[in-house]
Amino acid sequence: MTYLFLSVIFYTIAALAYKHANQVGCDRISLIFSERIAAVFLMLFYLFLFDTFRPSAQVTLLAFVGGITIFLSRLTLLISLKYGKISSSWTAVNLSVIVPVIASIFFWKEKPDAKQTIGLILVPLAIFLLQEDKSK
Amino acid sequence: MWLKYIIISFFLSGISDTTWKMAGEVAPSSVNSYLFIFHIFALLSAMVAFFITKRRIKKDELFLGMVIGFSLIAGGIFSLKAIILLPGIVFFPISSCASLLLVTMFASMIWKEKPTIRQAIGLIIACISIILIAI
Hints:
Chain A is an all-alpha fold. Chain A has helices at residues 2-23, 28-50, 57-80, 86-94, 98-107, 114-130. Chain B is mostly helical. Chain B has helices spanning 2-26, 31-52, 59-85, 88-111, 117-134. The longest helix of chain B is centred in the middle third of the chain and has 27 residues, at 59-85. The two termini of chain B are 33 Å apart. In chain B, 45% of the residues are buried.
């Protein structure tokens, strides 16, 4: 339970720091650049202490696509904060966990059960409800 | 505008999550190596954008960027540790919803960002959908 508590706290700190950076007018690219330097150092430290480096061509190619898309995703998330609340933006981006589920259905022919199907249907509705009121 | 940017961010983040899942399928023992290379490519992308646009990092940006980077990685590591020790029925509802609720609560206290009733319903539906998909 301690690990779960710490994980929730750290993710919350990250989201609030994004919002604060946006509030104080931090440059988005500079912010992501610093964020990624810290991420690489901590990951290097973790890999060195608890695992061994086992790269392969497939893993490198996937990491290449994943790395570029997460950079662009963070950039657009920071831009979205200009137009909406952190709670709405953070929630909507967290809902992206459905994309691998949808990919599994199409590429690996995995069949979602009834619960997952209802969950998948609810996601667009949640994003629609989370958007800012245009009249404001 | 919010919807446009958040949908782009949503799909890009989803593609990134999918590559992580694919790495887990093709090379389960190399997932940490995948994460390390993934962060290097994300750093290189940021570096290219940083130098092309000729930016300079201010103290605030460096400090907040470091806080975000450490928090995201530490959150991910603790999350992986927790999922090994806890049953999914406990882990997924708490991990999915607690952070969303805490962010909403703190944003309301610090920046007076109170969600509207419609957004609050959206938050609840988001939590329910994540739990339904994850359990």
